[in-house]
Amino acid sequence: MNSFDVDILNLWYGDNHVLHDVSLGIPARRVTALIGPSGCGKSTFLKSLNRMLDLVEGVRIEGSVLFDGQDIYAPGVDVTTLRKNVGMVFQKANAFPMSIYDNIAYGPRIHGVRKRGELDELVERSLRDAALWDEVKDRLTKSALGLSGGQQQRLCIARALAVGPQVLLLDESTSALDPISTEKIEELVSRLKRDYTVVMVTHNMQQALRVSDYAAFFLLGDLVEFAPTERLFNSPGDRRTADYVSGRFG
Amino acid sequence: MESRASRRRRISGAMLHAFAFGSGAVVCLVLALIIGYIFVRGIPGITAELLTTQPSYIHDTIGVLPNILNTLYIVLVAMAVVIPLGVCAAVYLSEYATNRPLVRLISFAVETLTGIPSVVFGLVGMLFFIQMMGFSAGVLSGGLTLAVMVLPTIISNTLESLRAVPDAYREGALALGSGRWHMVRTVVLPNALDGIATGCILAVGRIVGESAALLYTAGFGIVLNGFMTALQSSSATLTVALYIYATERGELTVAFSVATILMVITMLLNLATHTVSSKLGEKEKEHE
Ligand SMILES: Nc1ncnc2c1ncn2[C@@H]1O[C@H](COP(=O)(O)OP(=O)(O)OP(=O)(O)O)[C@@H](O)[C@H]1O
Ligand SMILES: [Mg+2]
After folding, report:
1. Which of A47, A215, A216, B281 has the least C-beta neighbours within 10 A?
2. Whose CA is closest to A73, among A89, A52, A93?
């Protein structure tokens, strides 16, 4: 069962053709890692999965992206619902300058949760899921910007979980963090895959090996290889993949 | 031994230093003299009667209460029009408009309008509001004219404040499924508010200090009126009253007292902008 089925996806920024005929199925309730050298189109591909590219001017997309069997680029698709189901966490933590509580409640409020009790419960559950509850339970009304970088990134994950998504997209979400925060987030991701589909961009090969079940290797806008992580690293089917994962370039 | 070049450098450095210090001192001295002179000549004339009455030919007394109120009225009219208009225009340009070249063109036009001398706005205001629309000279036409005058400033200031809000906040809100207006209302505007408020206070300062654009649009009336009456009857603000008392009536003491009042208002407004922007500074530190 796949969360996403991407078929012959081509993408241009203006005249710059950055994704070429990308086709793959992203399995549900698994962690899929996107790897590849800088500028190869990982972030672009990730953003195509929840239509965050709608915000960028001059983007042209061809091909299809099916989420749960529905083409997300078909006319009449409700982007709000799509983004409720497909959450995203960015490379740099972007906690809003409001209280920790309001940060987490931000998404649920958009989607119509108003009752205080219901919100309280959601906030606690999301923070627990993101392994942050114990650290912040006594300061929920304090500004989220007073948290450390690692805590803010987990807050962003909690905020994304609070709307009840089926998929979580993580774009190098640990690249700015210390090893301990990174470890916490990796543990979190491994735990999340019981309930969520996770797609994560990472430059860290060890991390991809540790947490992902599948890996996709991109190079200059081509999807070179997509396979179970173990296989992609240990017996890559393509010479370029072998060179990359063994650190010969990138 | 000191080389010639380094000696020359040392001397020219010292001269530059002395020159900078000298001009700084001159500027401070001139400012202090002006402010001191106005206060010395103006303060004695500031009496309860001056501040709380209107001029009376029967008692032969002068009061500037009507002018204080007219100034307030004009600020109210102008700000009531310009804040919603200017802020909405800026929000549209920065958050909604998708035609980039058009936005750039409008921004350029707005910047250009900022530099136009205020008399020109007065002339256009007179032609448009009084001759074409048929209003009489008063707080309404004066206030509308000044609203047009400060509109570009409010728009460009608001644009700047909106641009200072990190895109990461916008992305974060949209990624959670927020619609555009919800995003603007919950994460963009609250974070731009201090900057917008500062711009508005500066605009109030310009309105309080404006006279040229009001001569033909608000008029010279120095009679005490309620707000509704003042809208459509000739009403001199403090600056225009200063002009009247200094030239036509030859009442220099009153003129200096009005000048003192204007300076106090200006200082209070400056203080207010400082308070708002230092609050902003504190908040930024908190965010780091
Ligand atoms: N908003 C944009 N407008 C125009 N071109 C863009 C934009 N974003 C990315 N690109 C271009 O698209 C290509 C792919 O970029 P993308 O950000 O997807 O790479 P990436 O694999 O995520 O790189 P990195 O590992 O450095 O994050 C690059 O050549 C980049 O310059
Ligand atoms: Mg990237």
Report:
1. B281
2. A52
